Amino acid sequence: MSHINARRSSVLLIYTGGTIGMVRNQETGALESFNFDLLLEQVPELKRFDCRISTHTFNPPIDSSDMMPGHWEKLVRIIDTNYQFFDGFVILHGTDTMAYTASALSFMLEDLGKPVILTGSQLPMGMLRTDGKENLITAIEIASAQRPDGSPMVPEVCIYFKEKLMRGNRTTKINAEQFNAFRSFNYPELATAGINIQYNEYFIRRPNPLKSMKAHFKVDTNVMVLTLFPGIQQAMVHTLLHQTGLKAVVLRTFGAGNAPQIPWLKEELTEARRKGIVLVNITQCQAGSVHMGLYETSLPLLDAGLVSGYDSTPECAITKLMFLLGQGLPAEEIRVKMDSDIAGEITKPASAETAQ
Questions:
Q1: CA-CA distance, 154 to 234, in Å (whole number)?
Q2: How many Å apart are CA 167 and CA 18, to the nearest integer?
Q3: What is the DSSP letter of 46?
Q4: Is 270 labeled as catalytic in the residue annotation?
């Protein structure tokens, strides 16, 4: 590990791979993967931070398209091992699967009490117009920020990108070409960075002071996603729902959770539920929430036993199911937890809260 500026607060910088870690070797001119000494040449401002920065690098670094649940476990172990030694953590990560990793970590780091900020860039650090420099500097500043009482300013798993700090399990990638690559459609930003960093403290999740962070290392990937579309065929749906080992399905429906009223669809879903497969209903829309029972076209899904995913992102619904399955919970308990907010990942309407 490398260290700079042993001061009041401390941040562990974890490089997994991705565009942000590519820096230009001043001698050869070639773009090279993460090297902290080279990074300090590209971002000398890091030396001016009033905190201690240590680094941990995945060896070898991985492209985010290759990010797998085993890498989430590795990140959790790094954070768990170093949890008492640092005030915050910054994860440098490729953008393609960043929202999946952020969502997974929000569940695997139960009762998290310190900042875990994921960031990256659309252009390598070694390029003149890189967005990585500002993203990195501000992510470290947020990870080390404290309230007047000394508690962390943002004790959550978050994504920081292009002047916006967003709750990790509420965030999705929306753009492959612009610097504003991420968006939180259904939850307000936790902070915006301009001349000053403005924190929206009302929306920041606070840990239970009576609980310590509990790390979870297991996930179960026997999950599939089924997206409805006009003309979908029964044979295809039947094949998917009868895959060996399948334990849960995220059903991406129309609008507020609606589906075509074709008898075979309800029959297939009802049979899957009867076999113990957990079925979760989320909307294909980027913004908005599932309201099963609001329209007649959602009643068959309700009758088939689907549980509402409310305003979950696809990344969140998938990783939440993986996490809960990994705990070895029975299907009915998973259904209850999928209908519950366990890490700030969903907003339930007042009517749903009252009904429970």
A1: 47
A2: 21
A3: G
A4: no
- Cα 129 to Cα 19, 35, 118, 125: the distances in Å are 13, 20, 21, 9
Topology of domain 3-215, per CATH? Answer: Rossmann fold (3.40.50)
Rounded to whole angstroms, the Cα distance separating 99 from 157 reads: 11
Phi–psi pair at 224, nearest 5 degrees:
-130, 160
Query: Structural domain boundaries of the chain?
Result: 3-215, 223-355
Matching CATH number, 223-355, of 3.30.750.24, 3.30.390.50, 3.40.50.40, 3.90.550.60:
3.40.50.40
Which residue, among 315, 258, 320, has the nearest Cα to 291 in the 3D structure?
Answer: 258
- Cα(230)–Cα(294) distance, integer angstroms: 21
pLDDT one-digit tens code per residue, 248-303: 999 999 988 888 889 999 999 999 999 999 999 999 998 989 887 776 666 778 77
Contact between 171 and 184 under an 8 Å Cβ cutoff? The reply is yes
Same fold for the domain at 3-215 and the one at 223-355?
yes
Nearest to 232 by CA among 243, 223, 241: 241
Over residues 138-154, mean pLDDT: 92
Task: Specify whether the CB–CB gap between 256 and 302 falls below 8 A.
Answer: no
Radius of gyration of the chain from its Cα atoms, rounded to whole angstroms: 21
Cα(135)–Cα(20) distance, integer angstroms:
9
124 is written with which tokens? 């390598």
277: DSSP letter: -
b/e burial code for range 68-79 (CB count within 10 A of at least 16 → b): ebebbbebbebb
Q: Which of 16, 19, 55, 57 is catalytic?
A: 19
- pTM for this predicted structure: 0.90
